[in-house]
Amino acid sequence: MLKSKNFLQGVLSPVLLILLLLVFWELSTQWFSIPKFILPSPIEITQNLGERFGIYLPHILDTLIPILVGFFIGSLIGVALAVLLDVSQVLRNTLYPIILALQTTPKIAIAPLLIVWFGIGLTPKVIIVALLALFPVLINVVAGLESADRGLVTLGRSVNASQGQIYRTVKIPSSIPYLFAGLKLAMTNSVIGAIVGEWMASDRGLGYLLVYYNATLDTTALFAVLIILVVLAGLLFATIGIAERLLSWDARQRRQLSSTTSGSTRAAGSGV
């Protein structure tokens, strides 16, 4: 019963709200005779998506590539830097204040410089996306590593556990929730970075289509591209959420198996 209620609240309620908004939107465009170039109806946008999806598909792929590549590079560098800062107090004291200062700097502002240095193409978009993905992951993983139980870390060191063993058994597990929080922010930033990169200078991609259809006053196509972007961003965000739940489930299964094994061993040792 509780699961059904949660399903209704978590899935059906938002879907019903969206459907009501779409009906209101459709009826409003008809009742008030709103011109299509100002606000097209949902039916017209849907027709546009169906008729032009073959045109949109290559641009979707052109936008998806820098998002995924930049997200992967930025996240990987962010995790590596976080571990280095946690291992070395000297590096942390030296670099972390600089990193926090750079976090407040608008990375989009360097996009024109990247275009001057690397030209129009994939490289500047990947760099912009990587920079936007790096900082959320870095700062969240640093916080996650700091949140590790100090007692367990001290216990590990007292039994001569290696640094790698301490990270594998204590620090990394404690940082996983923080990592996924950072990855979700990083993915949101990655989509924004790719679109802004295509706005600056590109002849392909969804960002380019937004600029093109805005210039030609094709508002129906503009809305169609926006919907594609929303769906794409939602799918990417949901993928990270699914990975987080799978990893959490696997960790719970391992803990349960470990507890069961330990209990069986103790029972056998006591002769029960």
Q: Could you please describe the fold and organization of this structure?
A:
The structure is a single chain. The protein has 272 residues and is an all-alpha fold. It has a single domain, classed as Orthogonal Bundle (MetI-like fold). Helix content is 85%, strand content 0%. The protein has helices at residues 2-31, 42-87, 89-103, 111-118, 122-146, 150-158, 163-200, 206-215, 219-269. Helix 2 runs antiparallel to helix 3 and helix 5 runs antiparallel to helix 7 (163-200). It starts with a helix and ends with a helix. The relative contact order is 0.11. Mean pLDDT is 84; it is low at 261-272.
Helix/strand layout:
Elements (H helix, E strand, L loop, with lengths): L1 H30 L10 H46 L1 H15 L7 H8 L3 H25 L3 H9 L4 H38 L5 H10 L3 H51 L3
